């Protein structure tokens, strides 16, 4: 089945290099061996040119590591890469992993490539890598989007105000993009190229131990990285969790979550694969499937739209709309009955037992249910010395502990706490007309059952 033309961008429109030894694919955003349109395009082109395919990965480390990434994030990433390598080996695709930025590794290996294929992410650091590659590589470069259902520019040519403005644009075109990506047969094996991988990712723990990382935030037991595990979890969710998802998704104790967000963040599963599986699932009704697709496509791709069209999405002054900054500034001096330091917040040392439980779940297991994430963020705004300080604290804690931190969804959801993609509400102390969330919101679910669940999860992480 042909790859949708809307997913493909030619970054350097020149002929493939004569005498190239292989087609190179930079495995960067889509870290998987299946349901990956960039990889499938690379295989198509290699078959046409009579060449093998080599996938490469650049591992950032030490002072040049990925911003804010720590041992927790890298453990999950490396587990996923080990799984991806096994899948690539099984298909006859070469895999080369070296230390360096993705741009540095791709530029070096592209010197002997007939063609370079990139996948695509929307964060500023990723866009910078693509620019570096485009400037330095002198052969044909093609980029293929495989980590959203509808590519950002196809859905909208501007920053969208809210989900309600993006939703109809997505619905108008998403059926065209909801087509499966078939696995192509590799006609020319890569095992005779003699390329060596400087890093043996088949032992992820050993690779992790040899890296210079922040180890204070440890890897977790709750989640194992890789496309194999992602698909296992998806299958279990479709069997046991999709039915009732529409009503249960906002109740943390209902176990209705799919837990796909870490796997989506690291590109270990495709949103297209998930969407097609949800559409075809026997469990659940139309409302359940619609509710899930709303989260997977509309809400997630609204976040992609935000980071793509916002120059400095990590900045309070640029990410938060004018009306929200204005009202928060007007109430910045309002009395705050509770104030906590960032260290107290990180350790869950507040007067609010339910907030502390949510923080413990994030700190110890790398995950927090969406319903609690919103409450968690609103309380940090309320308990911080200023709105800007609250925004910066929320983002730092989010990116440090969540497995899916440092993600378009993370930057967008933190900004939502401060008014992004929202409207003015009734005026309150501290918040002004930014939406407030009180302890009464916890009555919508069994908060005590949630605390007990978190206690069990944290005990499991500690091996007790």
TrEMBL record:
Q: What is the required cofactor set for this protein? A: (6R)-5,10-methylene-5,6,7,8-tetrahydrofolate
Q: Which residues cross the membrane?
A: none
InterPro entries cross-referenced by the UniProt entry: Crypto/Photolyase_FAD-like_sf (IPR036134), Crypto/Photolyase_N_sf (IPR036155), DNA_photolyase_N (IPR006050), Photolyase_Class-2 (IPR052219), Rossmann-like_a/b/a_fold (IPR014729)
Where does the Photolyase/cryptochrome alpha/beta domain lie? 21-152
Q: Which PANTHER family match?
A: DEOXYRIBODIPYRIMIDINE PHOTO-LYASE (PTHR10211:SF0), DEOXYRIBODIPYRIMIDINE PHOTOLYASE (PTHR10211)
The protein's name is Photolyase/cryptochrome alpha/beta domain-containing protein
**What is the source species?**
Methylobacterium trifolii
């Amino acid at each position: 089945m042909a790859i949708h033309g809307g997913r493909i961008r030619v970054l350097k429109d020149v002929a493939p290099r004569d005498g190239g030894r292989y087609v190179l694919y930079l495995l960067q955003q889509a870290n998987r061996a299946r349901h990956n349109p960039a990889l499938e395009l690379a295989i198509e082109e290699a078959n046409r040119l009579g060449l093998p395919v080599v996938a490469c990965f650049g591992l950032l480390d030490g002072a040049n590591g990925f911003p804010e990434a720590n041992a927790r994030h890298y453990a999950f990433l490396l587990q996923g890469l080990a799984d991806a390598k096994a899948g690539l080996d099984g298909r006859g695709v070469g895999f080369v992993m070296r230390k360096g930025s993705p741009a540095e590794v791709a530029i070096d290996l592209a010197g002997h490539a007939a063609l370079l294929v990139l996948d695509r992410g929307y964060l500023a650091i990723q866009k910078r890598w693509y620019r570096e590659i485009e400037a330095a590589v002198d052969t044909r470069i093609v980029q293929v989007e495989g980590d959203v259902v509808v590519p950002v520019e196809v859905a909208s040519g501007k920053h969208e105000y809210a989900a309600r403005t993006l939703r109809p644009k997505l619905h108008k075109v998403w059926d065209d993009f909801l087509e499966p990506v078939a696995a192509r047969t590799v006609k020319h094996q890569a095992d005779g190229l003699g390329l060596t991988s400087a890093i043996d990712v088949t032992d992820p723990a050993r690779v992790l131990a040899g890296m210079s990382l922040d180890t204070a935030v440890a890897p977790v037991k709750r989640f194992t990285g890789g496309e194999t595990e992602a698909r296992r979890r998806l299958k279990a969710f479709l069997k046991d969790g999709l039915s009732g998802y529409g009503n249960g998704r906002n109740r943390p104790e209902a176990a209705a979550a799919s837990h796909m967000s870490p796997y989506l963040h690291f590109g270990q599963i495709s949103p297209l694969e998930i969407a097609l599986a949800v559409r075809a699932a026997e469990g659940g009704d139309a409302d359940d499937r619609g509710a899930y697709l709303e989260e997977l496509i509309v809400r997630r791709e609204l976040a992609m739209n935000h980071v793509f069209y916002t120059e400095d999405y990590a900045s309070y002054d640029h990410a938060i709309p004018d009306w929200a900054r204005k009202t928060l500034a007007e109430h910045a001096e309002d009395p705050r009955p509770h104030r906590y330091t960032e260290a107290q917040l990180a350790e869950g040392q507040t007067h609010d037992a339910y907030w502390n439980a949510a923080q413990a779940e994030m700190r110890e297991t790398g995950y927090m249910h969406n319903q609690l994430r919103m409450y968690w963020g609103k309380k940090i705004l309320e308990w911080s010395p200023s709105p800007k300080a609250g925004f910066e604290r929320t983002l730092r804690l989010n990116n440090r502990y969540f497995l899916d931190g440092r993600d378009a969804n993370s930057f967008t959801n933190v900004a939502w706490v401060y008014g992004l993609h929202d409207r003015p509400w009734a005026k309150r102390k501290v918040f002004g007309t930014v939406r407030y969330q009180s302890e009464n919101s916890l009555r919508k679910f069994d908060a005590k059952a949630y605390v007990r669940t978190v206690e069990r999860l944290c005990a499991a992480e500690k091996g007790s």
